[in-house]
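Good morning,

Attaching, inline, the backbone tokens for the sequence recovery test we're adding to the shared suite. The designed sequence is right after.
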């Protein structure tokens, strides 16, 4: 209907408007008709031209949408639609995996371990997760900047203007350097995330970095935001994000707070609810 009705309406509008024009032209021979009827003729001519064009444009748009809907219903997607559908499928499976893992851990059952051949395991270490994620660290840096200085001579107005410009330039450089030096999330990049019963491992830039549960001082498992933040005494905080991070957050909370925290932690409650809609 979104394309058929406008397509049928296009010739109907044209012929209806032209019939109105013909009828008015026949009546114009009668001198008793008011002159504003000429304006009505112009209006009908405009409708006869613009009306069908508008209807055909709407029919074309509606036809394209109907065609795309038919192709999607038959599994024919554009590259963009296929990428979106694939990402939604991955996130849905990851969320369901996190829910199943949550139920398994709450029942005090040990999930199946993994063989990670390119990581040397510690004594009694078992790996449970090997997934892609996004990695970032929170820290400040030292930033240097140069101040400009110049000697001005001439009229007082010229000297004052030059000094003002130099001061504003130096202030802008100082503020930019202060913003760059402030503590913030840095080194944002994809990583390979491995979680065991002892630590979190991130492969960043071809190098494995270990973050042991025993060294954590704070854990923030924001599974509704697909993220996990951990803090340490000896190194800068770690931010992990991505559709697989809720599972990593569960294993981290289990290792740092115990099995009872899996049911009691406020941020993990969403995984225990039935028929919950996964976060976007």
């Amino acid at each position: 209907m979104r394309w058929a009705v406008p397509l049928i309406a296009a010739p109907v509008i044209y012929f209806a408007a032209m019939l109105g024009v013909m009828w008015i032209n026949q009546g114009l021979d009668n001198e008793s008709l008011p002159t504003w009827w000429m304006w009505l003729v112009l209006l009908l001519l405009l409708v006869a031209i613009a009306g069908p064009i508008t209807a055909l444009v709407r029919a074309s748009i509606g036809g394209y949408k109907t065609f795309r809907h038919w192709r999607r219903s038959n599994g024919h997607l554009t590259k963009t639609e296929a990428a979106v559908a694939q990402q939604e499928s991955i996130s849905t499976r990851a969320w369901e995996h996190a829910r199943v893992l949550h139920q398994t851990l709450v029942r005090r059952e040990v999930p199946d371990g993994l063989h990670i051949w390119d990581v040397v395991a510690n004594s009694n270490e078992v790996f449970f997760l090997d997934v892609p994620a996004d990695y970032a660290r929170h820290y400040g840096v030292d930033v240097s900047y140069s101040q400009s200085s110049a000697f001005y001579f001439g009229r007082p107005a010229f000297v004052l203007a030059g000094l003002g410009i130099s001061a504003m330039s130096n202030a802008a450089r100082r503020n930019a350097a202060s913003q760059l030096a402030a503590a913030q999330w840095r080194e944002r990049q994809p990583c390979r995330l491995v979680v065991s019963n002892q630590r979190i491992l991130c492969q960043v830039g071809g190098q494995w970095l270990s973050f042991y549960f025993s060294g954590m001082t704070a854990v923030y498992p924001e599974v509704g935001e697909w993220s996990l933040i951990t803090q340490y005494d000896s190194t800068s905080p770690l931010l992990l994000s991505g559709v697989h991070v809720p599972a990593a957050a569960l294993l981290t909370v289990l290792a740092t707070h115990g099995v009872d925290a899996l049911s009691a932690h406020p941020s993990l409650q969403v995984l225990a609810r039935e028929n919950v809609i996964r976060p976007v």
